Amino acid sequence: MAAQLSSNYCVSNLDHSNDPRPFFPSHIKLGEIEFVIPESADLLRQYIRYPSLSGSEANAVNYFQNLCKEKGLYIFEMNSKDGSRNFIASVFPLSSGKPNYIFLNHADVVDVPAAGDWKYPPYDGVIAEGQVWGRGAYDNKGAAIVQLMAILRMAERARSENWPVNFSLLCMSGEEVFSPGGAGFVAENHIETLNAAAFFGEGPAGLQGVVPRKSEEKVFSVALAHKRALWLKLKLAYESSGHGSTPPLHYPNKDMVSAVNRVLKSKEKLQFNELNTTILHLLGDMEGGTKGFFLKNIHLMTPVARAIIRKNPLYLSFFANTISLTRIQNEGLSHNSIPNEVVALLDCRLLPGIKTEDFINKIKRQLKNKNITVEVVLETPDALPTKPDVFLYGSIEKSIHSVYSDAVVAPMMLQATIDSNYFREKGYPVYCFVPILLTPQILRTVHARNERVPIVALENGIQITEELIKRIGERAVLVSRPIKFD
Question: Which residues sit opposite 167 in a β-bridge?
Fold first, then answer.
């Protein structure tokens, strides 16, 4: 008996969670049952096998670009002088001038600091236990394969019916490190060439089982706004006694630690808007009980709800600017030598509308040390939230419900920083979500050990994206037809 794991047959009996053996061939026999690995999983494992740390993603981009070309998509390259590789692959050539609906993805991945701790090697692209394993399986190569497969499934129909709109995927470099040669370069130098009507970018995954007592509940969020990144370098230098056995009252390390501690201990003001209060309602529904009631009714129970938010780092990240001390560093001296210079690095994430100058001035006041200099290492653009188009947002919602009929779909502001803000800053509508359903346990492997994505979730994500493309294309055809009067 043969069973095929495809978008038409994604059920629980095809999840090989009880089979610990990795497998590589396209056909696997377990007893008398033969399983066929879907093309999506096979392509993803191949993509994973091209290691692509930020700044070294050229080979991975070449693989993905050639794959898109072999599948019949039109390619347009947008490579920057720093060596960053970017390309767009579209159903119709960009020269057609058709309004273009663009799905964003990136080829680079984060580092693997402890490869030996992985269940399967991080760059082997192993398929096992009903999942594709490896660095980038979800972030962001898995999402890229979902986009590619969905576009390919609709390309023949779009061309045969000569749809008046185009669909593309835009693959970029350097997203994980906010590289100037990636999305920022494309937005600044090629935005007119793209003919963009709207962008669909990286965002929150679908989640199932966020609350243990509601293990079947599925939540998909569509990010219409993002926090932005502001990386600061603090520096303090002056002459002091150098021997560790007789520490002076003041020396750079001590004063820097005291100053930064004042910043970290300060409470950032909570800010509430239409998008992040939507998260409160979702969190309140998930929490249930008295705590959930307070979260859902913050306008009535402000002091209690604020206290709940401040005690939870995840909740707090939606409603306040955050500041993380990521490094304190000195020049290399012996253990018993007190250095005369110290540097501290802060990773700050700012809510939309917060001005850099105002934020830095507040940091300086909190430091209470005029000798500490503050330098901006990097900042990503501040962009106004996308005002959701009724049809586009509704199409996303209906596309998700076409696969997960009982899922909750809600707009939100994402607390992370994503490179789609470069396009939102230019005034284009950007809808950010990843149509891949994960459990919290699997989501925690992203940027960590044992990153993986379930094959069923991958295939269902393709169905969702395919449905979204179909809805946009069919509406475009309908609107473009001339009205006939008798």
Answer: 101
